[in-house]
Amino acid sequence: MSRLVPVPGGDLDGLHRSVVVVGGGQAGLSMSHCLTQRGVDHLVLEKGELANEWRDRRWDSFCLVTPNWQCALPGFPYDGVDPGGFMLRDEIVDYLRRYAESFRPPLVEGVEVTRLRVDGEGRFTVRTPAGTLTADQVVVATGPYQVPLTPRVAERFPDGVAQVHSSAYKNPDQLPGGAVLVVGTGQSGCQIAEDLHLAGRRVHLATGSAPRVARRYRGRDVVDWLEDMGYYRRSIDEFDDADAVRMRANHYVTGRDGGRDIDLRAFAAQGMVLHGRLAGVRDGVVEFGADLRRNLDAADAVSESIKDSCDSWIAKNGIDAPEEARYVPVWEPEHDGPTTVDLAAEGITSVVWCTGFGRDNRWIDLPVFDGRGYPAHHRGETSFPGLYFLGLPWQWTWGSGRFCGVAQDAEHLAEQITRKRLRGNDFEVPWLSGTPVTTYPGADEWIAPRTVA
């Protein structure tokens, strides 16, 4: 078990800290930096190594899809020579390593938290293989991408077809020779399909409803326009359908080779085989839905609507930006009906499942989740006093969970944590006492007093 900061006594058993941060990625490190700046004693627990998710669960050619200048962790803005470029996987890991070295967080690596509870005295108990420690407050910064999700239909593929989830995909040579079926057209699915396509592999791609965005428009990266228009700073409270917004798929685009559009129609014109949504598998034959045209048109429509917003912004502010012709589809499906593919006849020997991730919060033995297992919170603060989440998509803004927005969220939580330390524990834990929550300054806006029946 390696440690960036030694732990007294050689293990964690019996140790107490004001704050325990669970997770040592960009969110956990950002939280640690903000707590360090405020002089709050704390400990960061990481089940793997520093930046483990970036190092071990990204493919070899992976790069950011947002420009480097958006990497603005607390106290550590991007300091490289290519602010408009896109860091590769190993460069991201190095950025996080240098960030940790800049303030030496009390980070313990190789320790997984297996249970989080509250004891009879109202303190959090944090169980790990290295012992059980206690804390006054806990920040869960484990991120949204924890458990790879593979649909049950995967069980129906023939035994001879290799299957891998996007979290375990590394490069085309990892897969057996032959054609590859990629399932899913979110960011990972489109980029992995491109990776295989550029390597000369025959690719079949099962599309979904994810939107796309142009890489550049009217002389600038679209992210630059969106930043100027304030999109990354829009709060979740501005939307009537906040839950639906949080569950939206990200727009697909790439930063590969300096950044470019991902145009599935262009891939099809070059030989990639596009299908609708995967519908089933029977006796080695894969069935696809009749929604390919709809999926492509919807993705293009989102991209064009973003350009409309850019045009309006440019006109409103009198910005001198070059005119640019709008996108014209370079390929159309031959028909709108369902399709089938015989795996053996097409020489498909492997499947890459780009079907996303789920959360696994079973180790948190506290009632802070909604019916879907999502943590109920406001700006990362839960209704359970002293328990917070950090690094969630749309935690507060579109930038939350990204390198560009996690600093604001971490600063906010650090302020709440500090205020609670200064006040002391002036409220009871309702699930222990059976009494209503005693609200505190700023909490009455969103915490309704609750009583356990």
From TrEMBL:
UniProt key word Transmembrane: no
Alphabetical list of Gene3D superfamilies matching this protein: FAD/NAD(P)-binding domain (3.50.50.60)
Coiled-coil zones: none
Keyword match Cytoplasm: no
A molecular function (GO) term: monooxygenase activity
Domain of life: Bacteria
Alphabetical UniProt keywords: Oxidoreductase
One Pfam family per UniProt: Pyr_redox_3
Name of this chain's protein: FAD-dependent oxidoreductase
Species per Swiss-Prot/TrEMBL record: Actinokineospora bangkokensis
Taxonomic placement: Bacteria, Bacillati, Actinomycetota, Actinomycetes, Pseudonocardiales
